[in-house]
Amino acid sequence: MPVYNGAREIEAAIAAVLCQTIEDLELIISDNCSHDSTQEICNRYAALDKRVKYFRQDTNIGAVKNFLFVLQEAKGHYFMWAAADDTRSKDYLELNSRFLEESPDYVAATSPTRFSSGDFDPIEMGDDSLEGDLEDRYLKFFRNWHANGRFYSLFRIAAIRAAIEEDSYLASDWATVLGVLGQGKCKRIGDGFVLLGEHGESNSYALFSNARSHWIHWVLPFERFIRFLHQSTRNFSWATRRRIGYRVFRLNCRAVRKQLWHEWKLRSQRH
Questions:
Q1: If we measure between CA atoms, which residue out of 218, 197, 215, 238 comes closest to residue 114?
Q2: Are residues 53 and 9 in the same domain?
Q3: Does residue 254 share a domain with residue 129?
Q4: What DSSP element (H or E) covers 152?
């Protein structure tokens, strides 16, 4: 559970993990040098439950490194990220770990996912099952990408460690999920649920400005992601690469328009 200034909602997120029907778990919290009461809340839970491992960073190391930190500290066979404003059904870990135990060709599983104010929609939430061969899984990902709910799946830890993108760029979370898909299939089971909070960076007007490191990103916001795709799909058929390329082109055009809107909103807020 990477967190920064999450005092308002982190107690519910911690409780949702500790009350799971599977008790053999560890909750690793990495506090990215918060300046609210996050530290006090986490220390209290760590004192009450030995399964809670609390770390506080001396300085703000950035969101991506904070996500990487909890993965590096994990010791189990399975791993999931839990945002500090997310909650899950009590049986989430039991149901999804059981599925993975029984399905060796799958590397990730999750339950129906929605935002706290939204609906369970596998297309809009980007949590639908991705099965078939690798090219089929990639193509279906780009049909059902949207909120990328799969990023908060339960993963085989070896698969997520092999796939994680360590650099921060726009859609690096998509690249991580696609890297996992390169190792196996992803399942959306029918039971349990995940409720995603709505205070993450993807809902921030600073999403594009935080990821922009070169002038080219004004016209190609997904430039780094496109480079990842060029490498990861190099052995795909020409037809599949063409279909993926067309979808990414449309996504990039949409992102150009959206980042201009975000920039206008940011400047309006400053004034």
A1: 197
A2: yes
A3: no
A4: none
Residues 70-81 pLDDT 10s: 999 999 999 999
pLDDT in tens, 213-255: 888 988 999 999 999 999 999 999 999 999 999 999 999 999 8
Cβ–Cβ under 8 Å, residues 94 and 88: no
| Domain coverage including residue 13 | 2-203
* Tokens describing residue 147: 């909120």
Q: Which DSSP symbol is given to 155? A: E
Distance CA 200, CA 18 (A): 22
* Number of domains forming the structure of the chain: 2
pTM: 0.90
The SS3 of residue 154 is: strand
Q: Do both 158 and 251 map to the same domain?
A: no
Does residue 17 share a domain with residue 62?
A: yes
Chain mean position to CA 64: 11
The dihedrals phi and psi of 185, each to the nearest 5 degrees, come to -95, 165
Q: With cut-offs at 50, 70 and 90, classify the pLDDT of residue 117.
A: confident
Provide CB contacts within 8 A for 22, sequence distance 6+.
Answer: 93, 94, 97
Cα angle: 166, vertex 172, 174; to 5 degrees: 130
The token pair at 215 is 């002038």
